[in-house]
Amino acid sequence: MTDDTTAPGEPNSAAAHSLLRTERHLVRLTFWQTILSVVGIVIAILALYAALTESAAVRQQTAAAVWPFVQLMVEDYDTGDAAGFSLAFTNAGVGPAKMQDVRVSIDGKVTRNWSEVVASVDGDANAAVKRNFISNRVLRADETVVMFSTNDADLARKLVAAVSKPRGVLTFCYCSIFNECWLADSRKELQAAELVEVCPDFGDDTYLN
């Protein structure tokens, strides 16, 4: 007579063993899924960093390609019998310069137009002059704009004396097409204009010519 009686606990033991193996597989699977997820996140972060770095580099290269550099030029001559004077702005950069406000002061007094400039140096109001506006205009690369000039000998000599430091002070600000702005002051090194977040508003002190 065959004894088909199964020992108590054997089926439960087999089921438990099978369940344990399944749990181990699940743990391993979860572990590798976690590793892959972490790797994916790291790769995504690296890709984002690379994209941002490349974007910043491209922007810097683009900004350099349209960098403006506005220079103040004062020219004068005096032969004894004749004299002349001119004050001009030239864009020596490679991109357009958006000129903002310009301020001119002589002996500590702001001059807002040509008439006030002439009066400040006791010049002849009827002297022949050439002038042009410079505030709030765009200077293309290599463009020069003469702010004012005269061949009246007496007035020219007075203007030369007036622009000599520290009597005359000229302050101007300009921006690139990316709105990077520089502030220049004739009392400082004009070849090293100060980088500013935004150009100052000179308001009623703006030179209008």
Could you estimate the helical fraction of the residues in percent?
A: 25-40%
CATH topology of the largest domain: Immunoglobulin-like
User: Strand count, sense and closure of the main sheet?
Assistant: 6 strands, antiparallel
Count of discrete alpha- or pi-helical segments spanning 4 or more residues: 3
Classification by helices and strands: alpha+beta
Number of separate domains: 2
What oligomeric state do these chains adopt?
single chain
* The CATH C-level class name of the largest domain: Mainly Beta
CATH architecture of the largest domain: Sandwich
Rounded radius of gyration (Å): 38 Å
Mean pLDDT: 84
Number of strands: 10
Keywords: Membrane, Transmembrane, Transmembrane helix
Transmembrane segments: 31-52
Keywords:
rod-shaped; Immunoglobulin-like; six-stranded antiparallel beta sheet; 2 domains; 209 residues
Provide a brief overview of the structure.
With 209 residues, the protein is an alpha+beta fold. Helices cover 35% and strands 28% of the residues.
What does this structure look like?
Keywords: Membrane, Transmembrane, Transmembrane helix. By secondary structure, the chain is α+β, with helices and mostly antiparallel strands. It contains three helices and ten strands. Strands 3, 4, 6, 8, 9 and 10 form a six-stranded antiparallel sheet that branches. A four-stranded antiparallel sheet has the order 1-2-7-5. The protein is rod-shaped, with a radius of gyration of 38 Å.
